[in-house]
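Supplementary Text 2. Reproducibility record for the structural model of the 592-residue chain.

All settings were left at their defaults, and a single model was retained for analysis rather than an ensemble. We include the record here because the model underlies the residue-level annotations in Supplementary Table 4.
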Amino acid sequence: MKNISILVVLVLLFSSCDDLFEPALENNRGLEAMYDEPTYAQGILANAYILLPYSSTPNSDVATDDAVSNDNTNDYMEMATGSWTANTNPMSQWQARRNAIQYLNLFLANVDQVVWSKDEVINTMYNDRLKGEAFGLRVVQMYHLLLAHGGWTQDGRLLGVPVVTEPEDANSDFNLPRNTFQECVDQILADAEEAIDLLPVDYGDISDGQIPQKYQSLGVTNASDYNRVNGNHMKGRITRRIVEAVRAQVALLSASPAYSAGTNVSWEDAANHAATVLDRIGGVSGLAQNGGIWYVKDEVDNLASGATPDEIIWRGDVGQSITLEADNFPPSLFGLGRVNPTQNLVDAFPMVNGYPISDPASNYDPANPYADRDPRLSRYIVLNEGVQGPSNSVIVTGTYGTNNDAINRESGRSTRTGYYLRKLLRSDCNPNPQFNTEQKHYTARIRYTEIFLAYAEAANEAWGPTGTGGNAYSAYDVIKAIRERAGIVGVDSDDEYLEMVKGDQAMMRELIRNERRLELCFENHRFWDLRRWDVPSLNETARGMEIGQSGSTKSYTTINVEARDYEDYMYHGPIPYGEVQKWTNLEQNAGW
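Retained model, structure tokens:
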């Protein structure tokens, strides 16, 4: 009986295997199936959205002078201390970006054969939009691939990545050389032009009198037909406005010191591309006044479906979560305290009068270091005896603290620097297992403030602090507006420090870079900025603040927390070691 049972099982098993190894004919769907099945075609495009490179967690900041991690197994901490290789690069974008580009190439090679609608005009509108999305998404994916892996070779050539714009299959030649950095930029800019020509500035329902001219010429007279393709239900997908913003990012990267010798993109180009984005909101007058705190309760919870705040160019989906808070709240609030801002970053925040704390005119008091500081300091960082959490609990990071919030009190949970992260976190989340209260969050993929700062940086280099190059505003105008929004009041309500530096291009450069550091801290920009500026800050020892107390008197002692070790060659990320081993035509960046 036992043998009969085994025989029955084996028969069933191997009869099932027939379907595994030779699936039924109706399940073998080739690529041509997309031509008559628009949902199948859109599924191919959707993979490039799924593989977007944006992160809601500030991982890369712990590889910079802005933060450390209390997690001893953190890949980015290993990177910061020089323990990474071409095999263990946590910043690698190689596989995910190239996978996304393959999906996009497949889509673009076949999109014109897809029947989106039996109505010829509506079919054209669908085809335009979806093709534009594919070109735009390829811009995004290529930019992040270039950002992570572009670099100089041993013989002094600036290379990018292999430019692949056609679908690959088993018969393709995968042993491709890297294109030059400039050739990659040229391809990105060409794709951007295609996307900009095909995509709407934004998605949204319109009335009959607002139909774009190019569709009127095709015979579209009913706004409902346009709305069916480009209406409110499309919000969240890539648009002309978003592509213009990514183009500005590409231009800024290419014009920067680490790359400019190998490209023909000028600072003027970078400034003008940024201005294209900013002019759509009226230039400096369009700077959102809540720009630095888009993630708090009132900003997120009141978002209508599909809406985007004034500060945001592109955002991810809104969803309930508590991950950021569970990872970064102090231990007393049931968090892991993972990302610890450094004293290096704290020192970069000026006084409320606008002067750097190193300037005698700042009136900085080392015995009371957090008094009269730039309001952004306490908005972004939990300071000693600051409050956090749903009950506004006082967080004591000083050595006199009575729980594990105190500096270095418990390995792997307590702060190593004397500071905890506040930016990006919602204080009304509660990681306490008794409650586990989640709240709404979203990833801000691209903010207007970033593009304003890109313009300021490029305009200062191109035309000096107050030059405009024919635009309606200067680097000075942008920085003045950002600092006013931040709460820099200056002396007699006048930002004297800004007025002093506006006559000096080098001083303005340092101020713009510092404003970028503050405004974009913990948003995964600092690492890439330091690399493209080619400055030694990645090697700066991460410092913290040890605060003691005797009676009512506090003492403040700066401490070294983590030595950093970036060799010169590490300023350009490697091609993955395994890829170089597989493909003889794929050159590695110098030093790796």
